[in-house]
Amino acid sequence: MPLISVIIPLYNKEKFIANTLKSVLSQTFYDFEVIVIDDGSTDKSAKIVNEFNDERIQFIYKENEGVSATRNLGIEKATGKYITFLDADDIWKIDFLEEMTSLIASFPEEKVFSAAIEIEIGKRVFPAEYSISKDKNPQIINYFEGSLLHTAICTCSAVFEKSVFETAGNFDISLKTEEDIDLWIRIGLQYPIVFTWKIGVRYVHDDKGLSSLKNTVLKTDFSKYSELAKTNLELEKFLDMNRYSFALKSKLAGEINGFEKFKSKINLKNLNSKQRFLLSLPSFVLRKLFALKLFLQKKNIRLSAFK
After folding, report:
1. Which residues contact 121 (CB under 8 A, 6 or more apart)?
2. Which of 52, 135, 139, 271 pairs as cysteine with 275 (C-beta 3.0–4.6 A)?
3. Can you tell me the distance from the alpha carbon of 82 to that of 80, in angstroms, rounded to the nearest whole number?
């Protein structure tokens, strides 16, 4: 059996899947299987995958059910001791799996391992920011403390012992948004994270500016974790930072009811003065600032008050 199972959910990614698979098959670490699960694609994605002649690739086609059900099927089919995910349009660094197996060897008692990512917006590439000290690398962190700026577990940059899913559960198929963060919360409540600042993956941001927000429908406010948050201050602050982010997105998209829903659940003491100020701004001012933020990101300058 392979050491690592690589799960790739696939849905209409004919323009990207070849490069994604090449980034896996060119890894400097070899002991892995690749499980590509086509979630009912209607383009040439399946044809492209089946053109790869590598015995490590297993291709599964099923009817469309969504990414959570697709990843869960991958977990079920995986034969490796460790599981990692890669979206069909993201690219691993050539030594990502080698770095992860090095962490596994260095921290044999741990079960969750994660690498920093870099983000591509337009023609600019910059590293993600984390609320994690750079004094030591790699290091064992609390997921919630390390994820106040950017999640310390990204779907495409983490490796999990398979037993983690037996304990924490799989992706919640009832959630249409933030299903990954929901699982990371459950994992973070039970496991520390081994984190390395060495960048393992490039996430390509589909930059459509303000227009993309109009299609954003956020249906979760993490209410099911409210009781736990009363006695877990790290979790409470993490949830509030996400609610703050969702509140801003809702106001930017003109979803005032959504804005009020998220804002009402925030303990404002967990926000800094700049963040509280942004929440108070009218939508039209916020949109101008958001457009400025996107412009500055392309110039490699970021506004830290925006999560």
Report:
1. 205, 207, 294, 297, 298
2. 271
3. 5
C-alpha 28: how far from chain center: 24
Strands 158-161 and 82-85, bridge-based pairing: antiparallel
**Pairwise CA distance, residues 80 & 76, whole Å:** 11
Element (H, E) at 195: strand 193-204
Q: Name every residue whose Cβ is closer than 8 Å to that of residue 58 and which is 6 or more positions away in sequence.
A: 33, 34, 35, 36, 77
* Residue 184 near residue 151, CB atoms below 8 Å: yes
Per-residue pLDDT of 115-136, as tens digits, reads 999 988 777 888 999 999 998 8
Predicted confidence band of residue 110 (pLDDT cuts 50, 70, 90): very high
Query: How far is the C-alpha of 133 from the C-alpha of 195, rounded, in Å?
Result: 11
Residue 65's pLDDT is what? 95
Rounded to the nearest angstrom, the gap between the alpha carbon of residue 151 and the centroid of all alpha carbons in its chain is 7
Evaluate whether 72 touches 43 at the Cβ level (below 8 Å).
Answer: no
Q: For residues 204 and 89, is the Cβ–Cβ distance under 8 A? A: yes
* 19-31 exposure pattern, b = at least 16 Cβ within 10 A, e = fewer: ebbebbeebebee
Please tell me whether the overall predicted TM-score, pTM, comes out greater than 0.85 for this model: yes
pLDDT single digits (tens) 248-289: 988 988 889 989 999 999 999 999 999 999 999 999 888 888
Of all residues in the chain, the percent with pLDDT exceeding 70 is 91
